[in-house]
Amino acid sequence: MSNYFFKVLRPGINTTFQDKGRFHMQHLGVTPGGCMDLKSFSIANALVGNTSNEGVLEFAYQGPLLKLIKGRTKIAITGNVLFQIIKSNQETINGECNRTYALDEGDQIDILATKQSAYGYMALEGGFDIKPFCKSVSILSRAQIGSNEGQKIKINDKINIKINSKNKKDFLTKFTKKNKSTIRVLKGPQFDYFSKESQKDFFSKEYKISNLTDRMGMRLEGTVMKNIVNTNIRSEGITKGAIQIPADGQPIILLTDYPTIGGYPKIANVTSVDYNLLIQKTPGEKIFFELIKLREAEQLYKGLLNSISEIIKNIKEIN
Hints:
Blueprint: E1 4-10, E2 16-18, H1 38-47, E3 56-60, E4 65-70, E5 73-78, E6 81-86, E7 92-94, E8 100-103, E9 108-114, E10 119-124, E11 158-161, E12 171-172, E13 182-187, H2 196-202, E14 207-213, E15 217-222, E16 236-237, E17 242-244, E18 252-254, E19 261-262, E20 266-270, H3 272-279, E21 286-291, H4 294-313, E22 316-317
Parallel strand pairs: 13-21
Antiparallel strand pairs: 1-4, 1-11, 2-3, 3-10, 4-9, 5-8, 5-10, 6-7, 6-9, 12-22, 13-20, 14-15, 14-21, 15-18, 16-19, 17-18, 17-20
Helix pairs in contact: 1-4
């Protein structure tokens, strides 16, 4: 354990350590979990020179206020985030996402809010000094699994960092952010449980994201789906992005901390290419669904991964 650390002055909302997740444990009832927004997560780590799966801090809506008690570090914040750096001499710097900043002993990082989005990320050079569970530091707070004893960050917590940074260079990358209301999906295994009219409505009517949304799922409000077979099925394995239709006919999209099995019919599944876009939408926003084929979804996801690689390749030194 290193001697360099932050003190948590304000924990923020749902602030947790996350990496890409812990896999090959679903047969034990443990979901992979991991970061909600792979794109923002990957860029944050790349900016500070970390490996692609180094643990970061993920926060929702309001982030933490942290004070660097001992050491020096380099940070990057990604997403669409409003934040400030408060230097030890009380000078305040208004932060810019997708670039690095040096923090010295006594400095504070105040992550005020996400802007028209849900999730943001903070990575630091060398990473956080935290203990993994089953090869991942990702926190599943409902199950109390992961680093930090499976708990969200709390006030007065001590957050250890691995290295004392000596890097004097800063880096930045720029890219165009997309914000569209159409979410592309694949047919679900119980698509034919729903009437032809409901199938048509699902792809033509808007749905509103409700306040009942967290890392596990997103409840939608809109046209009621009419099930003509059975509103319950024998529990079966589920994937991230599955769109379940319970008895009330209102869709629930299962998100990153989804349960490993479930017994509601699934009309569709969100494609991987649009998942990052979906989870950054906030309660009250309206979305539409568009049906595409598996081959197109695979090609689109390859394109997304290539675009992330290009953004990382375009990281430039700014000192």
